[in-house]
Write a structure and sequence with these properties.
Structural class: alpha+beta
Distance between the termini: 61 Å
Low-confidence stretches: 1-14
Helix content: 10-25%
Shape: elongated
Number of helices: 3
Length: 186
């Protein structure tokens, strides 16, 4: 399922599904761990330890089925540096405050316009929200565009391929010298 896709109850088995029926009676508290592989984060994110999450889901009063999930999430990932291709471990320790609204009933391919305050909403189909899918989407969307092993990573030389963090490279100096040689001939 793609990030931002509609959440369906059949996409989630145990251990946590927040149903409207139960939330109408009381908020649901959760304190769970997910082992690596229990949540599919795609090709670029490889969970390296337990994902820990705790919090509460509640049905918001005076709404038409809007669910709010508040809590925390901690997890570590093994990523690859986009500059030098070395390991770039990522740690997430974040506070969740997620809002879910029932999927509006619309005709096929009809655009739905969201108001400014609705930009951070997600939508669900059926009778509730899957915690596993909500966590997956939240974590994927909170990832940086690129991973770095360190902020000042020098990356790989585009000419010889050496990791410039480990070995100095003279390719840049040689290229400049060769370009200047053409100018000297003039």
């Amino acid at each position: 399922m793609e990030v931002g896709a509609v959440l369906r109850p059949e996409d989630e088995g145990p251990p946590m599904f927040f149903s409207i029926t139960e939330l109408e009676h009381h908020p649901v508290h959760f304190d769970l761990t997910y082992a690596p592989g229990e949540i599919d984060f795609g090709e670029d994110l490889h969970q390296s330890g337990l994902l820990r999450t705790a919090g509460q889901a509640e049905l918001l009063k005076n709404t038409l089925g809007e669910i709010r999930i508040r809590g925390t999430v901690q997890v570590d990932f093994d990523c690859v540096c986009h500059r030098c291709l070395e390991p770039a471990p990522q740690h997430i320790d974040s506070v969740l405050d997620l809002f879910f609204r029932p999927q509006p009933k619309i005709e096929n391919h009809v655009e739905v316009q969201l108001e400014e305050g609705e930009i951070d909403l997600s939508f669900y189909e059926g009778d509730g929200v899957s915690l596993r899918i909500a966590l997956r989407d939240y974590i994927i969307l909170s990832q940086p565009m690129q991973y770095f092993c360190k902020p000042d990573c020098k990356g790989l030389c585009p000419h010889c391929g050496v990791n410039r963090n480990l070995t100095p490279c003279n390719c840049a100096a040689e290229r400049i010298a060769s370009k200047m040689a053409s100018l000297r001939e003039l």
